User: Fold this.
Amino acid sequence: MIPVILSGGVGSRLWPLSRGMYPKQLLSLVDDEKTMLQSTVERVSAICNMDALTIVCNNEHRFMVAEQLSSIVNSPPSILLEPQGKNTAPAIALAAFHALKHFDDEMMVVMPADHVIGDVASFHRAIESAVVQADQGRLVTFGITPLKPETGYGYIKSGAMLDQHAFQIAQFKEKPDLDTAQAYLKSGDYFWNSGIFVFKPSVYLQELKLYASEIHDACFKAYEASVKDLDFIRIDQPLFATTPSDSIDYAVMEKTKMSAVVPMDPQWNDIGSWSALWDVAQKDQNLNVIQGDVIAQDTTGSYLYSNSKLVATLGLKDMVVVDTDDVILVASKDHLDGIKQIVGDLSKQNRTQTQHHRKVFRPWGWYDSIDVGANFQVKRIGVKPGARLSVQMHRRRAEHWVVVSGVAEVLNGDKTFTLYENQSTYIPIATKHSLKNSSADTFLEIIEIQTGSYLGEDDIVRFEDNYGRS
Assistant:
């Protein structure tokens, strides 16, 4: 099977850890060793054709996605870059057109990048059952056996039995109120909607053409006009912009006569909120989840996270406390739905905390804005072995670089020279410059002091770039 991973979400309900430019699927929220994206890929590596691994992701996340995958897969995956988010129906259509072109209509298993599955063997068995129905031309999704009257998930009502493992789909149901959810649980005919699918790409595109032809046609044109850019497949932006935005459920699954659901109970969680993360995380004797430097006194049932500084709590119950370099969130578990409103309000104010962490990752490494004031900014910059920043200049700021560790190859105006620890250089406004890590195995770290009337990241004029950025 072709593994298709949808990695386009933002995960705003897990703010302030999950942000627009560093969403939850790229974070190590459940497994300290792997990100959620990496865990999703590894989950199907034993049953899928990993040479056909296909990722659909946001253009802005491309370098982080590629880097995370490079450490766990042997051959480069197909990374399709969405110019903008258009929901799941168009994203899956792009993957299906790609599969038809390169992989001879092999079966696809489509998964979000940000789910947790505790019982992988059970998940594999469910996929095997789904393939039986998908081979007969059905679009198969998975229904999670509900454990409680959950109001945060959509539901699927099962219909007539197709075989001992699969049912026709009678109805899709929106997120219910508590009384309705309790009735669903009691009936035994309803399952949580997992958002995971198995089908042949040709069948999906056939049904998409029948029920949502505008999406089908726009995605076909956008994919056919795509171009290869380094390790990425860049979908045509103007053509993709014409596709309607819709989910696969609304566009196809609720209308097709070829749908099926396979119930499963693989210890699934979509990690859609801090309380969901608390559900799956390891807890101490006081039912607290503690990560980082935390002292919890007379505190129970809480999620406590510290990125760097000491966090001390006293007398808390059922709370979420999340400390990052630039934000502290303190929330009651029964008010977590309000996080999306906070993020929305901050976005309206153009606050950077909705998009970036203080430490921002780039294809060449990272930078950390350690101090900002009137007409100045101080950054700590880390450059990967052998990596190079673009050849660039700034119209409104000057920079002073001091090497903290490593060896730097510097372009400053018309001069190229080497800097070692404790050596520095000054780059005036409007001067062409670049920085390269000369080492093959150690990071280069510098302190950059910016001064000028404007210090925004958009004050960059690039002349050359190893990563295809404009």
User: Anything to note?
Assistant: The chain has a mean pLDDT of 93. The first helix runs from residue 36 to 43. Residues 300 and 317 are 5 Å apart (CA to CA).
